[in-house]
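Quick one, T. Sequence first:
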Amino acid sequence: MTLLELKDVSVHYGRIKAIHDISFSVDEGEIVSLIGANGAGKTTTMRTISGLLNPSSGSITFDGQDITKMKAHLRVVKGISQSPEGRGIFPGMTVMENLDMGTFGLRNKSGIAESYERVFSLFPRLDERKKQLGGTMSGGEQQMLAIGRALMSQPRVLLLDEPSMGLAPQFIRQIFKIITEINAQGTTVLLVEQNANQALARAHRAFVLETGAITRTGTGKELLADPAVKEAYLGVG
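Structure tokens:
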């Protein structure tokens, strides 16, 4: 079943057209990856889905409802949650306080304890550092906190924007393993990631964005084997 759909969506920054009439869908239970170079429009796409940017044309549908003009905070309540590029944690707040911020969109407040249990099961390190200030944690730990905070609202679709950015290799492997587990638990994932190898290896389907337009689509395995994708994004050729 289609959970999220963008149809002919364009986004402008002033006179500059950053996204050019893109259309794609995300089915319930999938991991879908968006890959592309810096400036391709990946983060703009994610911010538009989450309601932080308004499309200049086109439509966004979530669970059968047109949400094109819906406010960002209402999209969280509806079931869309984002872990942004750069993590965006509150450095002067503790791990618990950061996670508390993620419960805003939780429709069933009695499920807060369940959300904590899930997050601490996925990220035991956060459980060990409940009282630690977010700003004193390592980059990998901060990324865990950002994803954990996004999960606190029990989203139906989790938007992950560059989760491996700036992380050491051991943390990258761990983060992607956890993303796979999050999906296996039933959460749909839309993943923006420059580490194309990792993103495509885990994706059910994937799209290549180039200068604001989708130029290639396929399963993760198909794009991993695509010679043009190998040369442009996988360092092969």
